[in-house]
Design brief:
By secondary structure, the protein is an alpha/beta fold. The protein has 2 domains: about 160 residues, Beta Barrel (Lyase, Ornithine Decarboxylase, Chain A, domain 1); about 170 residues, Alpha-Beta Barrel (TIM Barrel). About 30% of the residues lie in helices and about 25% in strands. The termini are far apart.
Length: about 425
């Protein structure tokens, strides 16, 4: 459920009309619903009761500091995968003790930064990374909590680019080599082995892969305990899908019901890393139609947002529902495209959409996750504004970039003058 709806034929975010948002902040812009974010988070948290799990929001899904601050205030922890995401989480107010630092290919500089700031744990993605973590911890003079990411070799049945849990993927330690990796980690003087991590992919709509992954991890926990390696927590990752079009996604309650008995059997603290499932349907990309172009082959609705603002359709062939700001009965079949110099610059192809005219406002739905966070300045386009709505008020949480912003940090060498 989300709080975007039509009122008297006009699209609203909570109690603010998106037409008013466009008037105040311009287009393109991202619009997020505070109440939708809170509702989704609380429903996920409450679904697990009476089991107490730690929710660790995946910062990569939407990393605006205002959005992060919402999660901090709700009691969430933060899952970060880069030094930049760690910086954002700290600036948003997360205590370092509520931050887990994971990711592939962490640099020594990033690891040192995480250790010095005192994050709760660092997730080692490979056995090869352990030596570097131990070395940096020694240099910082601190023992560091470490979890090892295990690759359970589970097919998550999602898009190939966002599947992460099979042995052909770059993520994690092979399950067959896990015991040796944990022993190696335990032998590192400055590392304190406290957890297991797995993550099998994103936009997962079937329950079976989650259950299979946890069962394999649970078997590993038991094996480690038999060898005297006691594990304090298991991080089951994230990846729960949302409905973009007609996907039938399992509910939070269904997932919790299936996993609760396994969690009790494991007798460990469980963490999970939701991202898209909380913020995906809490945001839209608001854009304006610049013109409708008719050719002998097809019609094109050209808008002022481009693939630099929302790359998911081009990158994954992803579907995003297209709505008009004003409810209209008439429809048209068209490609909805942007102004970028690429044929891949589209939001919908050969889609039946509301009948648009130049100047109309369009809402590209389900854009709250992996929208702005994956945006760029391609074609020297300033990145969009971001707006957060709560009740009757809309707040600018990121100003639109200017042309001047595009060249910040750039410098012409003297020899070229």
């Amino acid at each position: 459920m989300n709080y975007f709806s039509y009122r008297k034929g006009r699209l609203f975010c909570e109690q603010v009309g998106v037409r008013e948002i466009a008037r105040r902040f311009g287009t393109p812009c991202y619009v997020y619903s505070y109440e939708t974010i809170v509702r989704h988070f609380l429903r996920l948290r409450d679904a697990w009761r009476p089991v107490d799990i730690i929710i660790t929001y995946a910062v990569k899904a939407n990393s605006n500091v205002a959005i992060l601050n919402i999660f901090k205030n709700l009691g969430s922890s933060a899952d970060v995968v880069s030094g930049g995401e760690l910086y954002r989480a700290l600036k948003a107010g997360f205590p370092a003790r509520r931050i887990v630092f994971g990711g592939v290919g962490k640099t020594e500089t990033e690891v040192a930064y995480a250790i010095k700031r005192g994050v709760f744990a660092i997730v080692a993605d490979s056995a090869e990374e352990l030596g570097m973590l131990d070395r940096q911890a020694r240099r910082c003079g601190r023992r560091v909590n470490v979890a090892l990411r295990i690759n359970p070799d589970i097919d998550s049945a999602t898009h190939a680019y966002i599947a992460t849990g099979m042995r052909i993927h770059k993520f994690g330690i092979e399950a067959g080599k896990a015991l040796a990796a944990f022993r190696a980690a335990q032998s590192c003087r400055f590392l304190r082995v406290v957890g297991i991590h797995h993550h099998i992919g994103s936009q997962i709509t079937k329950l079976k892969p989650f259950l299979a992954a946890f069962e394999r991890t649970l078997a590993l926990v038991k094996e480690l305990h038999r060898h005297g390696l006691l594990i304090r927590f298991v991080d089951i990752g994230g990846g729960i899908g949302i409905t973009y079009k007609d996907e039938a996604v399992f509910s939070f309650e269904e997932l919790a019901k299936k996993l609760r008995p396994l969690i009790r059997e494991a007798d460990v603290q469980v963490m999970m890393e939701p991202g898209r499932v909380i913020v995906g349907n809490a945001g839209i990309l608001l854009t304006r139609v610049t013109l409708v172009k008719k050719t002998s082959g097809k019609d094109f609705v050209i808008v002022d947002a481009g693939m630099n603002d929302l790359i998911r359709p081009m990158l994954y062939g992803a579907y995003h529902e297209i709505k008009s700001e004003r409810r209209v009965a008439a429809t048209m079949k068209a490609d909805v495209v942007g102004p970028i110099c690429e044929s891949g610059d589209f939001f919908a192809l050969d889609r039946t959409v509301p009948k648009f005219e130049a100047g109309d406002l369009m809402a590209i739905m389900s854009a709250g996750a992996y929208g702005f966070s994956m945006s760029s300045n391609y074609n020297a386009r300033p990145r969009a504004a971001e707006v957060l709505v709560r009740g009757r008020k809309a707040y600018l949480i990121r100003k639109r970039e200017s042309y001047r912003d595009l060249i910040l940090g750039e410098k012409i060498p003297r020899f070229l003058d």
